Amino acid sequence: EAGVAQSPRYKIIEKRQSVAFWCNPISGHATLYWYQQILGQGPKLLIQFQNNGVVDDSQLPKDRFSAERLKGVDSTLKIQPAKLEDSAVYLCASSLLFRGISPLHFGNGTRLTVT
Amino acid sequence: EDKVVQSPLSLVVHEGDTVTLNCSYEVTNFRSLLWYKQEKKAPTFLFMLTSSGIEKKSGRLSSILDKKELFSILNITATQTGDSAVYLCAVEDTTSGTYKYIFGTGTRLKVLA
To answer: What does residue B4 show for φ and ψ, rounded to 5 degrees?
Structure first.
């Protein structure tokens, strides 16, 4: 099966600019996650979708970050305006089930550098 | 506050050595624990553990969970240079019905030829 697709792979922007990341999960996976991984740290959940509804966005900095999954398939994560501390790898993951136990499958991530 | 702590933070061994990586956790409503291997890109899934005392095994890798003492270990025997990676532990917490995975900071393993 095709894996989780993410684009772009790398992005360099200046602070205060905006940026958007795209993710297409594994076909049939109902749950989609966006994680932020700062260098030397483990992934931190930003937002979790079940189909096109938000399940958890408690750690999403809503003053600058937004995400959507309009048709319950692919998703975009946007940062506007970016800050230096947003430099990180943004990982998208999907899982087959929501309340059932199933592992996360990750995409290759987007490495964002904010200068 | 929920937390997942991995130790050691980093480890350097020689090919053929055996390593044990540790993951301890404190979460409100535990359901499962996952191990991942992360090289330069996507974390790849290794094991999912839900029950205490049942060893999961895949080739030279094995893992076990202790739900009473709240920890898991990942063993790698006869290490190879290809095992060099960051190993991540994630714990699933089902508080408030959100089914959220909390990751540790990882153990960076370097295997020398």
So the answer is: -130, 125
Tell which phi-psi region holds residue B37, choosing left (phi > 0), alpha (psi between -120 and 50) or beta.
beta
User: Pick from B34, B41, B101: which is nearest to A45 by CB?
Assistant: B101
Judge residue B67's burial from the number of C-beta atoms within 10 Å of its C-beta, 0-12 exposed, 13-18 middle, 19 or more buried. middle
Gap between the Cα atoms of A78 and A66, Å rounded: 5
pLDDT tens-place string over residues A42-59:
999 999 998 889 989 999
pLDDT 10s digits, B5-20: 999 999 999 999 999 9
* B38: nearest Cα among A75, A48, A21, A35: A35
Closest in A42, A105, A108 to B103, CB measured? A42
Residue A63 C-alpha, separation from nearest chain B C-alpha, in angstroms: 22
Tell how many helices (H) and how many strands (E) occur in chain B. Answer: 0, 11
